[in-house]
């Protein structure tokens, strides 16, 4: 009789052990997925600033020194589009590179001293105020910035 009662009490313990183990397993599974998604977003923002900075280094800034460059009036908008949509000609109806990323999160700064130009000066692309959302939780990501030296700036110098 004693062994029969012992088996009955053991069956309840197995259910409790399974519940605790399963809860821990699923908690760890959610943590791994959340960590992976967060790392994917972090890498995406870094890549967006890099792509936009490389693109900006080959464009003419909207300053008088580059008056002969075509499309210089739309340079900043095109650089922001590269950061957000990975396409300089994207419209607001395009799908962003990352969810919730907007052109208003992107700041483009061309150096003035030394002046930006062919192999001189720098351009910085900064993404700030981006809200990372996962499973209903929202976190404001830190500021990401990439700075590169001016390359061709879309300008062909006159023959010397």
Give the strand line-up of the largest sheet. Answer: 1-2-5
Order of helices and strands: HHEEEEE
**Class of secondary structure makeup:** alpha+beta
* Uncertain stretches: none
Taking the sheet with the most strands, its summary is: 3 strands, antiparallel
Global Rg: 26 Å
The global form is elongated
How many independent structural domains?
1
In helices, the fraction of residues equals 40-55%
Q: What is the beta-strand fraction?
A: 15-25%
Helix count, DSSP H or I runs of 4 or more residues: 2
Quick check: average pLDDT?
A: 86
Q: How many beta-strand elements?
A: 5
* First-residue to last-residue Cα separation: 107 Å
Describe the protein's topology:
Elements: H1 2-56, H2 75-85, E1 106-110, E2 122-127, E3 131-134, E4 137-140, E5 144-149
Antiparallel strand pairs: 1-2, 2-5, 3-4
Describe the structure in your own words.
- The chain has 160 residues and is α+β, with helices and mostly antiparallel strands.
- The chain has one domain (2-149).
- Helices cover 41% and strands 16% of the residues.
- It contains two helices and five strands, in the order H-H-E-E-E-E-E.
- The chain has helices spanning 2-56, 75-85, and strands spanning 106-110, 122-127, 131-134, 137-140, 144-149.
- Strand 3 and strand 4 form a beta hairpin.
- Helix 1 (2-56) packs antiparallel against helix 2.
- The longest helix has 55 residues, at 2-56.
- The chain is elongated.
- The mean pLDDT is 86.
């Amino acid at each position: 009789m004693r062994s029969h009662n012992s088996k009955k009490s053991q069956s309840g313990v197995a259910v409790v052990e399974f519940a605790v183990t399963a809860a821990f397993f699923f908690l760890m599974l959610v943590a791994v997925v959340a960590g992976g998604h967060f790392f994917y977003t972090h890498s995406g923002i870094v890549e967006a600033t890099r792509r936009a900075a490389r693109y900006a280094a080959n464009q003419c800034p909207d300053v008088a020194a580059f008056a002969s460059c075509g499309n210089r009036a739309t340079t900043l908008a095109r650089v922001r589009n590269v950061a957000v949509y990975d396409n300089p000609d994207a419209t607001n109806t395009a799908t962003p590179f990352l969810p919730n990323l907007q052109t208003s999160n992107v700041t483009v700064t061309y150096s003035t001293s030394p002046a930006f130009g062919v192999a001189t000066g720098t351009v910085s692309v900064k993404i700030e105020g981006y809200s990372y959302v996962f499973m209903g939780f929202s976190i404001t990501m830190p500021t990401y910035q990439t700075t590169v030296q001016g390359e061709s700036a879309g300008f062909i110098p006159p023959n010397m």
